[in-house]
Specification:
Order of helices and strands: EEEHEEEHEEEHHEHEHEHEHEHEHEHE
Radius of gyration: 20 Å
Structural class: alpha/beta
Shape: globular
Mean pLDDT: 96
Oligomer: single chain
Helix content: 10-25%
Distance between the termini: 25 Å
Number of strands: 17
């Protein structure tokens, strides 16, 4: 076993504290990664504070992991010592079902294994990237292109692929009108990806304080989501709407913004059950959809696309002693736009 420093939380009301974490020895197909940075995702906050699902404590969160390969197993062919790599939201799946074979590992019929807070094949709970090292099968490791700084690449492994996957699936491109609800941790990455794909991209947000940033990152229009005039100005306009916000929306109103065969995709998780009038779907043959992150192959495609287009997350790097304060600010929506932990500070604070 490999002993590493980590930061863990012991319960929903607790603070993060140092701990020693045991990682498995490097197996034949495994890659040992010296973690340089790990992003803080809103999902981390929700899991650590037991806001949804079942959390197994002590918990080491983190599924936006980037670092350098320090060792590989004898059967590894894709990576070598010294490579810049990353690990996203999952570290394993059955590998045998039709979904896995077709690169759709997040939808594995037998259940994928998340990077943390999930039972692995050995019956142990996985622990994430708020730690110095991680051991992962090479099939679930991503190559980080040289054109993206490591700290700015970390959030792409969650936020980036979460937006890239639906934009690609619903064919964002020239002549397609896209709206993104929320210009935050997800939206600030989705806007430049949508723009780089060639789509006309509109942002709806609660405030105007991010307007300049949105235009700088490629938005064609920016409107207040609380302004009722948008529901007349944009009625029947958009081919694709991506909601990145966890808040409860007026689905009938937003569905009314879709053109013929338009799709509204939920990426955020509302606190209440979704409620709508079915005629909001029948009119214009609209669809209401959801999506998880993309598979491993698509995530690599996203990283390469972002590197080629000069797209990266806007981040603020924090030390390990700043995790609790960062969580409070993420929960309050006060970060621009992603926090990333400098893992070198785990041992020192």
């Amino acid at each position: 076993m490999i002993t590493v420093n980590a930061r863990s939380i012991a319960g929903p009301g607790e603070a993060f504290t140092p701990m020693s974490l045991q990682r498995r020895d490097v197996g034949p197909a495994d890659v040992l990664i010296d973690i340089a940075y790990c992003g803080i995702c809103h999902t981390d906050v929700s899991r650590a504070r037991s806001e949804f699902g079942q959390t197994q404590y002590p918990l080491v969160p983190g599924h936006e992991i980037v670092g350098i390969v320090s060792s590989v197993g004898p059967e590894v062919r894709k990576f070598a010592v010294g490579d810049r790599v990353g690990v996203g939201c999952l570290v394993d799946s059955c590998r045998e079902c039709d979904y896995c074979r077709n690169g759709m590992e997040p939808y594995c019929r037998n259940g994928h294994i998340r990077t943390y807070n999930c039972l692995d094949r050995s019956g142990q709970y996985t622990q994430g990237g708020y730690s110095e090292k991680i051991v992962v099968d090479e099939g679930y490791v991503l190559r980080i292109p040289d054109g993206i700084p490591l700290e700015s690449a970390a959030p792409l492994l969650c936020a980036g692929i979460t937006l890239y996957s639906p934009l690609r699936h619903w064919k964002a491109g020239p002549g397609v009108k896209v709206a993104i609800i929320g210009f935050g941790g997800l939206g600030h990455v989705g806007v430049p990806i949508s723009a780089a794909m060639g789509a006309h991209t509109t942002v709806f947000d609660l405030t105007t304080d991010k307007k300049a940033d949105a235009y700088r990152r490629g938005a064609d229009d920016y409107r207040l989501s609380t302004d009722p005039v948008i529901f007349t100005d944009f009625a029947g306009t958009f081919d694709l709407i991506l909601s990145t916000v966890p808040g409860d929306l007026d689905y009938d109103a937003f569905l009314g913004l879709l053109a013929l065969d338009g799709t509204f995709v939920n990426l955020g998780v509302p606190k209440k059950r979704v409620s709508l009038d079915v005629f909001s779907l029948l009119n214009n043959r609209r669809s209401l959809a959801g999506t998880l992150v993309g598979g491993i192959e698509e995530t690599q495609e996203m990283l390469d696309f972002c590197a080629g287009k000069g797209i990266a997350a806007q981040v603020e790097v924090v030390g390990a002693d700043g995790i609790d304060a960062a969580y409070d600010r993420v929960a309050a929506g006060e970060v621009r736009y992603r926090y990333v932990i400098d893992i070198a500070t785990l041992a020192t604070g």
